[in-house]
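Researcher: We're teaching a course module on how sequence relates to structure. For the next exercise, students receive a sequence and then see the predicted structure as tokens, so they can try to spot secondary structure elements on their own. Here is the exercise chain.
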Amino acid sequence: MNDKILVVIPSVRNPAVISDYSRNATDHRFPLSRLFFVVLTEDHVEKSGYQNALRDSGAEGLVLNQTDRDQMLADLHLSSFSDLIPRRSHAETSFGVLYLHLHPEFAFGIFIDDDTAPLPAIDYFGGHVRNLDFRGSVTAVRSESRWTNVLWQSFPRHGLYPRGYPYAAMKTAHIQETEAIDRVVLSQGLWTNIPDLDAVRILMDGDLHGQSRTRLTVEDYQGNFSVPHGCFTTVCSMNLAFARELAPAFYQFKMDDNPWAVGRFDDIWAGVVAKKVIDQQGWAILNGNPLCQHNKAERSTFRDLKAEANGLEANEWLWMEVDGAPLGDGSVMDHSQRIAEQLSRSRFEFLAYSGQLMTRWVELIRRTA
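Model: And here is the predicted structure for the students to work with:
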């Protein structure tokens, strides 16, 4: 199997993110030749800054704006599926999942947000590779609500729950166990500095600028942990490695560019679907290292609240609808199809709409398999 890694970066503002992560690879003697960067940007952004960063870093890659992405789909006779991927939205990372699926030379993909930076002391790419290669016993963390707070290790200090964590699942004690895992297909690196919170929690923390007053440090984390079978967790795509086999189940739900203008749940809901499929396959997700530094740019907290508001109630119920899908035996493709069909029957209009889009996503992946 080829050991090349696809690095997907949605970005409109920070070409230096390529240099930062390339330098980390070089500093930790991780072969830069294994990495192929795909930057997803917009038509109004000058691509040359990213292209120069690739060249100066000695890294391979492409910079694709909306026109480029539309043309690639047209060349593959897939334009009828172009509406599955939103425009001018973070959820355009679905194109990165599709790109991984279409190119078997890549062993797995990594999502990196452009407002993050690697920590100099941490081997970023090597950390994700070791996680995906891990076999053995690990601490598994669950709660009676069947949700695991990825910030549980330092919760007594900060009391935070990450973006997408259901409000009804809060305030239940976390329980540590030990489990043996044979296959890891999601490696979720966590974050120092600004935590990934929803707008309500940012407001509760007293911040009006889309960040938070509470900050996280390396000391807030004490090693990797898994989320056991039957439990869910928030999956944030700012620092995330994923196996190519997950493609049918890893649709980044269409945010912002939808009739309700709902935003900021794309990776969260993709993670819920993926976790259900991961459990069905007997696989695992590891959380913790490699940490990154999250340097979220200031923006109005109320802007984020407006994007989240119409999705907050649906977020409380989505995981239960996904969990209720009758999966049985079958492949990742089969499981993904059944979950999509389940969502399509939701009493929540936006979830039914999302399920219909996911049904077509599975069809797209099946057609290009």
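Model: If you want an answer key for the exercise: The longest strand covers residues 284-294. The two ends are 17 Å apart (CA to CA).
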